[in-house]
Every structure is written in C-alpha cells, then in structure tokens.
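BUG: 3D viewer hangs when loading the predicted structure for this chain

Environment: internal workstation, default settings.
Expected: structure renders.
Actual: progress bar stalls at 90%.

Input used:
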Amino acid sequence: MSDYVIKSYDESFLKKQVEIGTIYSKKWLTFTQSNVEKLRQIYSQDNFDSDTRLYCFKDKEMVGYISATIIIDEEKNTKRANTRLAFVLPGHEKMFYTLYSQLEEILKEKGVSVITTTQSKMNDNYYELAEKIGFIYEKTNVEIFIGSSNSFKEFESDLPISDFNREINYNLALKKLKETYKNSTEEALTNYLNLTTTTHKPISFRVMKDGDKIVAFCRTRVSSTDRFAQIDLLLSEGSEFRKQIISDAMVICKNKGYEEVAVRLSIHDQNDIENAKDFVSVGFEKITMEDRLVKKL
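Structure tokens produced before the viewer hung:
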C-alpha cells in the first residue's frame, strides 16, 4: 500500500465520506447515508471518538473509509465496538482489509474485547468479507420482505382511509406508538413519527379511522436504493385492518411507479412478528435477514 495513506478523522473529509457512502446506500436496502450536516451533529456528541474513523487516500483523493462506535458496559466493565466495515471505491478493494486491520489495532489499544457488524446477504459480498476477516454468526435481528405492487392480494376496507393530517392525527398516532412501544422514550417515538428528512422522502402516509379513533396507519417512503419503496411505519389494532392498510399502500406505490416494496421487521418485536404474517398474506416474501456477526479481539 505504498501509494496509499491512512488518516484519522478531519471534518473536511465529510463531504467525500458522504459521496462514497451514498454509492453504497443506493445499492443497499439496509443502509441509509446521512448528509454532511447530520454527520456533523453526530460527530459533535460527547461520545464521539475521532480515533475510530479512518480514511484512505491515494494521490490526495479519498478512496475509502471505515468507522466504529465503542459501547461501554459499565456493569460488566467491558468494551465492545460496532462497525459497518470499510466502504471503498471500485479499484481499491484491497484497502478494505488494510482499513479494517488498522481499525482493529486501534480498538484493541482502547481495550475493546469484542467487535460486531450487522450484515445482510443482499449487501454485495460483505457478509462473506466479514467471515473472511474472522467474524462469525451470532444472531438474526431483522427479516426483510419484498412485495410486488404488480401482483399482490388486495384487501378492501369498509372504513375510510385518508392521507395523514398532522393537525388532526399527530397526537392520536403518537399516543398509539407510546401504547405499543412502552419501552421507547417519547423523544425516540416523536423523532420516528417525524421522519421525513431528505433521506426519508415520503411516498404516502395513510390513516384508517373508525369515527375519531385511529385503527391503523402506514407510512411508505422512498428507499435509499433506486429499486424499492419501503414501508417504514405500520401500526394496527388487528390483522384485518393491517392487511387493508398494507394493500392501500401497495396501490399507491403501484400508481406512483414503484414496482417493489420492501419492509424490515424485527424478529424480537411482537408487533413486527404479527406484521410479518399479514405482509405474507398480502403477497410479500421473505428474501433475506440482517444478522449480527461477532469477532473476539
């Protein structure tokens, strides 16, 4: 790597980091690239460690980077780290290994005993790359389902389904989220409900009501990839309402030209477990999982 140089974090690197990350986010359903301003906010937090961001340059041009976040378990007095692994431009694939090797040495020096990475077999060959550098399967966290807007089972609703009206429906929707996700903070749920940033452009946000009562709502957004629309918020009081509002979302996606619709569902969340059954009823198929892989240092 005589003509390559590895550097630690500098704020001036962020623009190029976003450019490289965007190449991957357009291919990967499981990764959304934050914009420069969002990264500045993240990297200005007290727990940010610039040592765990490494950037690879050739002829003064950034060709790849890797980052990790260290998590401290006070009770067990241990440190672990999480990484997406290195993102590198075409033609510089060998630097994937160099970036990871240097990051691993830094993490060891900081007392990290375990490093994890979440990978899907949809993400190019990154699952295999992770195994090649010593990661092993620990557990599955998420299942990914895909449905075709050209061939799905329609479920008609006797109740009206309309566009989400923030003034009328916001507090009702937030209340339902709080009731469903009791272990989540109000701030987290509020942020989730408000998720309409440049990287999460909405396609539709629909509400099914019985009188003044919300019985289901569903939000569909543009995926970071060019292939998929994505359902990223779904809540319902029952299976029939759920199938009806999923069906409504599929009709909208079809009318707006999105042929494939994806959804990521946690296998550890009871609401998502119930959701999965009804997505299958509408015509979705499970195509892959997101697994957590682990390596002891």
